[in-house]
Amino acid sequence: MTWLRNVLHDIADDAPRLDLTERIIARRERRRLLAPALMTAAVTVTAAVAVAVVTLTATAVVRLAPQEPVAERPGAVTDLPARGVGPVSHAYLTYCRPDDGRVPAGCVEGGWQVVTRNGRTYRVAQALRNDTGYGIRRSPLAISGDGRKIAYYATGAGTFVVRDLASGAVETAPAKVPKGWLGSITHLLLSDDGRYLAFSKRPPLQDPAMVFDLRERLVRPLPNGATPIGLSPDGDTITLAEYAPKSRLRTVGRLWSSSLASDAKAVDLPGNHLAGPLSPDGRTVLAVSHLPDSTCRGVSGNVVPVDPRTGKTVQRELAYVDTGTGEIVRRVPIGGLPVADHRVYLRGWIGPREITAITTPLTCGDGRDGRTATMTRQPSYAPYTVHAVNVDTGSARKLATYRAQSPLHLVLPGFPGTL
Amino acid sequence: MDRNDSFREFMAAHQQSLTRTAYLLTGDRHLAEDLLQSVLVKVLGRWPVTNPPAYARKALVNQYISWRRRRVSTAELPSAEPPERSYSSEEPTIVRIAVQRALSRLPPKQRAVIVLRYYEDLTEQETAKVLNCSVGTVKSTAHHALARLRALAPDLAPRFSELEGRKTVEGARR
Q: Which of B169, B163, B67, B149 is nearest to B108 (CA)?
């Protein structure tokens, strides 16, 4: 063995330990399912291009390739280009006057920034800026599960839009949403194909939450004050979750078969839980035990699978065997995740067996015994660590650490979870 | 056993070694993950393949070269610098940093040849097969790569020279 081989082995020891198997299988399955649709689209586009070329004069220059954005200096933050942006890994809200600590590069007060998987950061200048100083208006942003589309409230359009980052195509919601309808906590849910977009807010106020079908240009009202956490693949059934005053799941079916959303059902969850996004099987939800804000006691990080129809905790396996009963209780302890002294928030699924979980350190008011301490969130940018949690074993592996001022200020791809 | 199960078996056995190769090629943990993921999705698309480890390695190396040619701005940022002063080629940590830094400045094909010849320990013929080129091209690419490494890490120049001589002798024996 040569000395260089030893050195190269030494360097390779720093390689990450990855488990990509299920993610790759899921991606392959998605591509396989999309292929016929893409083929149809390609035929249509080819025909259109052929017609266009024929009608152009011989001297005309046709630029068919999408325009690539100009290469940026690493670390530079620029406005989102019109097209040619790769999939994003996360988005975060920037406030430029944290109590202490470093201000993010390219900070715009109350503005969103998206970060691509390659590490490029862009300001979403088209999105409505949030009220400064944690005001009553929260302008939300959502990222599709594949990271290729984002949804936000477009100031110019006066409503929500969905932007395809690569092509630059923008779809505008079929109804205006006055800015005053945005609450202090506003949630957006974007379907993976970008066709459906649901919006809700807290406090509920009098204005409706709603779901849009951007392709058919339809709108339906939704129960207000709950977070949309899942949508069936056909867009016909939406699942929403509440965490206060009690943990509750609402399922609204037949969204588009009548002019009013119907077939709504609400179930209460046992105890105090924060529900994560609807699982890929469409029948279960994982929830994490919620910590009351008034105390640091009773910390528990068990992940509890919950059937949204019954509100009862179920065995994780039910998601996969589809027994339909949903009544067996099983708790899956999380391993390798700091739960005793951290808040835990569940976010998008990254495969049939893995869900992302965000952890952030807790701080207790008096820091002595925690019995009567009031919990305060760090006013400056705090670390939010993203983990992939295996829902079979509860084992977690760290994916990345981002900095944000609130869990609501950090958005990951996929359906949202509560808080 | 369906195709996903056999793919799972392959991944269980070879995922980590492919990750290591991807990391040596890209020099960045996130880029390595991106590269590997994009390659393995394609591999699974053609599954089952003959000799999956070799097929995946070939796809990995060629995808890396293609990426680097298209995405010039994704150059890695070394996390440490070798010392300004002259250093001994016997100081392992410094040698490692110097090699890592020099590797990051090689053109993609030269870097691929170094990884295939000196990490994967492939012969010139095997390397040529992976890169879809002639043995002569592999020889000249390796020669240029080592010359560039000598220039980029002058304190290690004698050791790189010694290496080239040794590989030539081994190649002649094979």
A: B67
A372: pLDDT confidence band, cut at 50, 70 and 90? very low
A204 pLDDT tier (thresholds 50, 70, 90): low
Distances from the Cα of A336 to the Cα of A18, A22, A333, A340, A357, angstroms: 15, 20, 10, 11, 12
Angle at Cα A248 formed by Cα A244 and Cα A252, nearest 5°? 125
Residue B79 has pLDDT above 60, yes or no: no
Question: Is the CB of residue B79 less than 8 Å away from at least one CB of chain A?
Answer: no
Residues in A touching B32 (Cβ below 8 Å): 15-16
Task: Please state whether beta strands A121-123 and A77-79 pair in parallel, antiparallel, or not at all (unpaired).
Answer: parallel
**Local confidence band at A262 (pLDDT 50, 70, 90 cut-offs):** low
Model confidence at A153, in pLDDT bands (50, 70, 90)?
very high
The radius of gyration of chain A's CA atoms, rounded to the nearest angstrom, is: 23
- For chain A, domains (ranges, CATH) are 2-411 (2.120.10.30)
Q: Domain B1-72, what fold? A: Rna Polymerase Sigma Factor; Chain: A (1.10.1740)
- Give the pLDDT of residue A363: 56
SS3 state of residue A237:
coil
SS3 breakdown of chain A: % helix, strand, coil, rounded to 5?
15, 35, 55
Residue A300, both tokens? 């528990």
Give me the interface pTM, i.e. the ipTM.
Answer: 0.88
Which CATH number does the domain B90-174 belong to among 3.40.50.2000, 2.30.29.30, 3.30.70.3450, 1.10.10.10?
A: 1.10.10.10
CB contact under 8 Å between B92 and A21, yes or no, is no
Q: How far is A244 from chain B (nearest CA, A)?
A: 38
**What is residue A290's predicted lDDT score, i.e. its pLDDT?**
59
pLDDT at residue A15 above 90?
no
Residues of A contacting chain B (CB within 8 angstroms): 2-5, 7-21, 23-25, 27-28, 31, 71-72, 74, 117-119
